[in-house]
Amino acid sequence: MSKPGGGPTAAAAAAAAQKQKALLQRVDTDIANIVDNFNLLVNIARVNDPPVRNAQESFQMEIRAARMVQAADSLLKLVSELKQTAIFSGFASLNENVERRIGEFNRLEEITDRLLERVGGEVAASLRELETHYYSSVQRTNCQ
Amino acid sequence: MNMEIDLDKLPLKRLEAIDEAGNEQFPLDIGYEEKRLNMVRRIDFSSVVEERDAKKQKNSKEAAGTQPWPWQSLVENLQVAQQELSIILDLINTVEANDAVTVAGMQRPKQLPHESLSDIVVSSATKLQRLRHLGRYFKQSSKALEQQVTRETRFYDSLIRLQQNWKVKRQHVGISVPGSESCFTIDLLHNSMTDLVLSSRSSILSTVHIDQDHAGVLTVKLPLRLCRRLSIEFPGFHSNHEQKNFLKGKMESVLHTREDEKMALTGEDVNEHVKDSHLILREMHRSIFQEQVFNLVNQKSYNYLPGVNVISMQDDCLQLSIGHGTYVSFRLLPSLEEEPNEKMNSNNQPQNRESGIRSTSSLGSETADEKSYPMDYLNFPDPASLEIFLQYLFHEGVFLKFKERRTYAPRLVMPSQPTSDGCNFLGHFCMTISHRIFSMRVMSMLEGLVARVPYLHLHYHPTWHSRISSWCLSLKVPLSILHSRRRIKPSESNDLKRGFRSHFHTKVVLNGDQINVSGEGTHEVGSLRGDFTAGCLINCYSCDLVDLPMVILQQVAGQVIHWLHEEALIIGLKVSRDFLCLWFSLDQGDKLGLVANVNAGDIRGCISWWLVFDDSSMEEGKLGATDDGERRSRKFLGNLSLETLYSTLMDLVSLSVYGGGH
């Protein structure tokens, strides 16, 4: 949809591409973090001879695990951002939905108007019938 | 104790002497053991030795005078040994502190096999414990992330569903960095409504914050104090109509749901929450709309409107006089009355029930003045229908026009430019109310008339116009008379061909406050011979409510006279018709008249009949002046039915045939 020669649409497309690239980069970074930290975690899980080194490595393991969780949380936030972008940037689908709803409400309005007309007609006919019944009733004829 | 230590740091050969010829003399190399002895000797214990000697001499001097303690020497030796040991320890600490110096010849003793295995076991156990701790940490994190995923799924699903019907906006809180918190709001204000008058309440209410509870359920808070509804009232008239509030029951159910938060949420629960949110938003949207209607009514009341006067004006109340002694008040009442155990107030709004009740109390103060207003509540239209009609007028006449202007010429609309739509809208509404009230009075009057005239039927004709009402008063000839007419003239099967009617109609149309009465049934003489034209309206009146009964009764009486005239003609009588009188020509020029007397106040019947004898010897147009003359010239027949009138007519046949003697 970008026009040749540039314009707001081209700029928007470029911004969207840039944003997509940034998001992909974030995804790659987070996944790489998870994988790398897991590898390191497995590597330092070995039992060493000097006990002093084991204490050092246990601290490193905690750090690696925390980084893995942090990367997972970052991925989750990324997913939330994507959902928000899908909700608030889908103008085509939003407009289509609005148009559809407008059509539905207009149709409901027409149906309601016709219904009201029919109800009005039935009410008028019922009123006429009731009036006729009343004036031909014994109560009314006895008054004559 | 002063101690001097002198150590060689570097194993360098020192020049011992140099002679005049420049020859250097170095000390001879000393063996390792000798070096050690020399180094040890360099530790100067001389001060300690001297002190010891001094003490010995002192003790020896004292011993010459006293007895020696048997353990004294041991104590002294131990003291000396302690001092020497302390010196050695200081030496060792100094040596250790010096990095360049290492303790030579020291090696870690080799571990025994079981010792190394135990070390490995301890290390393994420690590592295993760390790994288990990590495992628990991962499990906990996984659970938390799963819950977060579930929460966000619930929230965003609900948000998408809300977005189908409402305008959802996103606001970034703080610096826009990836993963920053976003605040969601719903804008209830339509783009075309920004030009309309908005109160501060509506402005606050137009932006609704969307919250997310700990379970991820989307919640919308309803500010109870800000939601108000439009109410139209007639002073002195309290409608039994109760405003249906679908929200109150939902609020209670939402409260119960919140109490059961500990139970796991299902999809049905989430659906219910979304529906409740829709309901709350709908209530707020309706409140904003009705406030706008009220504000516009308030604003337009400043302009001149024919027949409408402002009686009182407050923030939430406007009272107008709309003519015919009728007053109508427009009020903004709270949508929901706050209860003491109501928990749905927003957390940042302190519970204050006074403001919600204050308006009611302000209404209460006005009720004292309502006693002077007319209390004829039976003639007031249903306020609920008027509220709907007012909102309909606002929507069709004002809101849609604003919308069209913004759609087609958004830049040409000046918000300050006055329009006539609002004035027409309020004027039309007030005139409609006035018409409805007047219409009910007219109808009650017509019903009273019809109740007292048995052969008159009232039919209401809906016009589907807000300011036009129509009724039809029909006079039907009884079937028995029609049958007897056919017996008399069997050849005339079709009465219409002869122009004879079996029913007569009088139409009453109320247009605004103008009453128009149009009657049919009375024909000109020439038309009897020609073709009958149905619906020939020859009488048309405009009158007011006071004169309406008389007009109608005269019209009806005229129709009866017309009918009797036709019947008499059928029979072959010589009759003539006056306004409300039917004259029968008798022999010798006498006339017998059947006169209708209309009296709207007669409770026994509005139309009564007199029989009048017009002697040819008497002056035309005058009746006998004496009492005897009145009894001879006219006789009151009373309120007669159509059958009785017809039979009277039949009796008059013989009278006219056989002469007019009394």
TrEMBL record, chain A:
This is Mediator of RNA polymerase II transcription subunit 22a. It is found in: Nucleus. The keyword Transcription applies. Keywords: Nucleus, Transcription, Transcription regulation. It comes from Platanthera zijinensis. One of its GO terms (cellular component) is mediator complex. One of its GO terms (molecular function) is transcription coregulator activity. One of its GO terms (biological process) is regulation of transcription by RNA polymerase II. InterPro entries: Med22.
TrEMBL record, chain B:
Its main location: nucleus. GO terms for biological process: regulation of transcription by RNA polymerase II. It comes from Platanthera zijinensis. Component of the Mediator complex. InterPro entries: Mediator_Med17 (IPR019313). Keywords: Activator, Nucleus, Transcription, Transcription regulation. It is found in: Nucleus. Residues 338-369 are annotated as: Disordered. This is Mediator of RNA polymerase II transcription subunit 17. Belongs to the Mediator complex subunit 17 family. GO terms for cellular component: core mediator complex; mediator complex. GO terms for molecular function: transcription coregulator activity. Component of the Mediator complex, a coactivator involved in the regulated transcription of nearly all RNA polymerase II-dependent genes. Mediator functions as a bridge to convey information from gene-specific regulatory proteins to the basal RNA polymerase II transcription machinery. Mediator is recruited to promoters by direct interactions with regulatory proteins and serves as a scaffold for the assembly of a functional preinitiation complex with RNA polymerase II and the general transcription factors. Coiled coil: none annotated. Residues 343-365 have a biased composition (Polar residues). It holds the Pfam family Med17.
